[in-house]
Amino acid sequence: MAEVKVSVEGFLATITVSRPEKLNAFDIDMLKALAAACDEVEANASARVAILTGEGKAFSAGGDIKAWGGMAANEFGHAWVRFGHRVFERLATLRMPVIAALNGHALGGGLELAAAADIRIAESEIRIGLPETSLGMVPGWSGTQRLTKRFGAQIVRRMVLGGEMFSAEEARGYGLVDAVVETGTVLSAARDYAARVAARGPAALEIAKLMIASANGEDNGSAVEALGSILVAKTGDLKEGVAAFAGKRAAEFKGEW
């Protein structure tokens, strides 16, 4: 879809949110496009690392007020907040490491988008924050949940309750971003880091990402089940079970790992 672009070059997938005339602010169609982009990247067997970035001057200004401002309460809660939450969770749980290349400001939902990545690299002039309470609303796409787990409650309090916004260097000091680079160089820096990641074992990367998420209290149930399923899928018992089912016979399990 036009609002989210996907390209794959060798091991590297790039997801670009592309609504530059709106500072890459999200509407419903853009959320749907991001979900489709995640599915496309996940299905590409050659993709081992993904970069997430924005087109134009901003990484993302969050949710487009015109998209949600007129919604009734029930529609706002379900069609906007809960749907957006599911889409961002889809991004956060991609099988491969994701590097957010912050080419511009990341505000509100834009910061929540960046937080769904595993690594964040920011250009020096950007600012980040969670300004939702100034509009009489609260962060809805895991700003109070994933951000608190990953960065700590106090820094989230300062952004949400105090309305503080941080420069790239301040954000790096608080652990909100991992590196700061000169303006215009973030994609190059992200690609360099992606090559560093891709040099490691892809299976180990996927499993390690699940293990870290589980240790951090992020979606423990699905992480544990995914790890268990991957392990079982490698066993002789599973192969025997499938073969027995296909042959309409009793399985002869041997406990082979």
TrEMBL record:
Gene3D superfamilies: 2-enoyl-CoA Hydratase, Chain A, domain 1, Lyase 2-enoyl-coa Hydratase, Chain A, domain 2. It comes from the Bacteria. SUPFAM superfamilies: ClpP/crotonase. It holds the Pfam family ECH_1. GO terms for biological process: fatty acid beta-oxidation. GO terms for molecular function: lyase activity. InterPro entries: ClpP/crotonase-like_dom_sf, Enoyl-CoA_hydra/iso, Enoyl-CoA_hydra_C. This is Enoyl-CoA hydratase/carnithine racemase. Belongs to the enoyl-CoA hydratase/isomerase family. Keywords: Lyase. Signal peptide: none annotated.
